[in-house]
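Q: What does the assembled structure look like for these inputs?
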Amino acid sequence: MSAIVDLFSIAAIVGGAFFYLAGTVGLLRFPDAYTRLHALTKADNLGLALVVIGLLPQMSGPLAAAKLVLVWLLVLLSSAAVSQLIARSARRQGEGRR
Amino acid sequence: MTTLVGAVIVALLLWLALWTVVARDAFVAVAGFVVYGLLLSLVWVRLAGIDVALTEAAIGGGLTGALLLGAVGRLRATEAATAAERAGPGLRVLAALLALAVTAALMLAVLSLPDPAPTLAPLVVPNLPATGVGNPITGVLLAFRALDTLLEAIVLVIGLIGVWSLAPDTAWGGRPGLRYRADPDGILAYLARVLPPIGIVVGLYLFWAGADHPGGKFQSATILAAMWMLVQMAGLGDTPRTDGGWLRLGLVIGPLVFVAVGAFGIPAAGAFLAYPETWAKPLILLIELALLPTLVLVLALLMNGPPRRHGGAR
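A:
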């Protein structure tokens, strides 16, 4: 049983790491602020979500697991808000208009 | 494996430090500095210094980064002129030599440390129960080295007075900075309504947990001040008038209570800042409780900067 749980954790965390990698490549390679933000928020949302899901069965108890979920929700909230603010400030500075 | 991760973090740290120093643009340098602070807190986690890691993340990366960003914003107008100025070759060589000499001296000092390094930790551990607190960091900061912490709190208040003294005479006692304007239905206002309740709970928890677990007034005060700044930046609340009686009382209450408890130690335990055996924990908690509003106010008002607007009639 525990081997299956461990396999699940490894698969989910590797999946999360893949999204982080993809997001970082996008951040480095995409042409303007909006597409870079698009790449970055995917990494934050899906990558962190998969890492948290992978870690959940490894936690010592429901309280520790709840803290992990809370961290994920807080990161979601702040990354969604901050990416909108960055996009707005990029638009105000005329980025992306040709 | 862990050695590899450690090596990667150290390499990244050195690279970031270099990047921060050589960056031509001040904004880029500050961005590098913030990331450097966060990475450094990871190092502290790996060294099992959770208290230091929390402080580094909150103050080193977060608050100092925000203060530096404010400074960058104020220097923006003159930055191009400063960047165009280049010192002569003689001065540059001299500066490089001086920096190298300081680095070499530091390296020598680190390398010549006796092994094992001199430490008072074995003395602290058996004496910690006498303070009544379970977190050795809190015990050291508020019992064994209380004088350092007292001076630190006073220095912060003096620093704020220094910032305030930059205010023009007409604005003295008025509100710092410009009033932030933001879309009242925008995402920032939304964040400033959703996040502070959570942040206040987390901040107070860190404060309360600080007696027995990693945490404490400094990390807690940084989070609380950040929540206040968020509300201000979203335009939901104005910066406070700097001549308010309650505000000024809150600014000095921490050092005042600290000194009063210290003076109480002279008759009660025979020395300034000594705690009578059975009273140690309540006295330490009292000091922490009094320092909390001082730290929150000082940190937030340092971010706000000198008073700029006259508040009008009281």
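Chain A has one domain: 2-92.
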